[in-house]
Specification:
Elements: H1 2-15, H2 27-53, H3 58-90
Length: 95
Amino acid sequence: MDAVKDIKKLIDEINLRKPKNYEQMKIEEISKELHGIMEFEQNILKKIEICEVQHQDPDLIKYAKIISRKIIERETKLIQEIYLKKIDSEYLNLK
């Protein structure tokens, strides 16, 4: 029963990750956020791997992989889009 509880806790952790208002941030802050999402992804993947090794519920593990991939992809794309816009407007349009 604890195994299912652990994977459900991991799923809750993944679902709690919400995008921030990146438009209001400076380029340096956005860069830190991009590093943060990559670190979050690494931590989640490690936790999923631990659950797999412990032979926890394969359906819940598959679900955790899917939602983590989707949430992380969505946030990474959002950060990259805003980051590139800010670089373009602050550095490339100064010429």
